[in-house]
Amino acid sequence: MKVWGLAATLGFSILAFVLGQALGIAALAAVKPFDPLHVDADGTAIAIVTLIGDPVQVVTLVLAARLTGTDILTYFGLIMPRWRDAALAVMALAGAIIVGDVLTFALGHDIVPSFQLDIHRSAQTDGTLALLWLALIVVAPIGEELLFRGFLFRGLVHEPRDGLPGILAIALIWALLHIQYDWIGTGMVFAVGVLFGYVRLYTGSTLLVIFLHMLLNLESLAETVFALGGI
Predict the structure, then answer these.
(1) DSSP letter string over 76-107?
(2) 117-151 burial, b for 16+ CB within 10 Å, e for fewer?
(3) Residue 217: inside a domain
(4) How far apart are CA 208 and CA 197, in angstroms?
(5) Number of folded domains in the chain?
(6) Does 148 map to a domain?
(7) Which of 127, 189, 151 is nearest to 63 (CA)?
(8) Which of 194, 52, 34, 38 is nearest to 114 (CA)?
(9) What is the mean pLDDT of residues 116-120?
(10) Where are the alpha helices (DSSP H) in 32-162?
């Protein structure tokens, strides 16, 4: 199977991310005025940027992968996992969520970050809560995983010896892009990224990782709604 090398993989990934964000922000600017310094607290803004930007990002990556002549489903690891692998992965994610919540509470931090409460309140005020949930539960997991555990993983992990450094590097980049979190939250994102990377490595299925990411965001959403006293 022909795949892009490290430099081309990073180049196309940056291009896809920047292009997606640029068009997402352009769409946001056309819809509503916004404060660039406080977008991370605006649920409607996050929904619009995600719903527009992530599909643009995915299309760019698909076009880049097609240039190699390799089957797209194979390139991105879009294969069905075995039921046993899926069950084990879900249990591992559940364990990670429990450990993360317990550790966060033990360190004296709120289990639900304040920015999550802010974006849900603002989206509820704007009447765009459904769009925000669609963006967080469906679109963002697909867009992020096709980039990180799909395209980047394929370009960085060619042999078994590439597994650990590739997984750690991808998880670190993914965590650092989540600038809305404090250091504890960023650490949790990194840890989950490592888990997702190993699931991708041992099952070969990015579909399974997308499903896990959707479950993670759904659980986070449930905690947020509970913290807000129901919506």
Answers:
(1) HT--PPPHHHHHHHHHHHHHHHHHHHHHHHHT
(2) ebbbbbbeebebbebbbebbbbbbbbbbbbbbbbb
(3) yes
(4) 11
(5) 1
(6) yes
(7) 151
(8) 38
(9) 93
(10) 43-66, 72-76, 83-106, 114-126, 129-134, 140-145, 153-156
Diameter over CA atoms, the chain: 52
Tokens (6 digits) for 67? 């240039």
E strands, 120-166, are none
- For 191, the domain range is 6-227
**Domain membership flag for residue 1:** no
Determine contact, residues 42/34, Cβ cutoff 8 Å.
yes
Neighbours of 223 (CB within 10 A): 15
Domain assignment of residue 66, yes or no: yes
Burial of 162 (0-12, 13-18, 19+ CB in 10 A): middle
Q: How many residues does the chain have?
A: 231
Residue written as tokens 């979190």? Answer: 181
Q: How many Å apart are CA 110 and CA 106, to the nearest integer?
A: 10
DSSP helix/strand/coil, 66: helix
Q: At which residue do the structure tokens 């920015």 appear?
A: 115
Tens digit of each residue's pLDDT (9 = 90 or more) over 91-110: 999 999 999 999 999 988 88
Q: For 148-177, how does the pLDDT look when each residue is reduced to its tens digit (9 = 90+)?
A: 999 999 999 988 889 999 999 999 999 999
Rounded to 10°, the helix 114-126/43-66 angle is 100
Whole-number Å distance between alpha carbons of 179 and 190:
12
* Residue 85, pLDDT score: 97
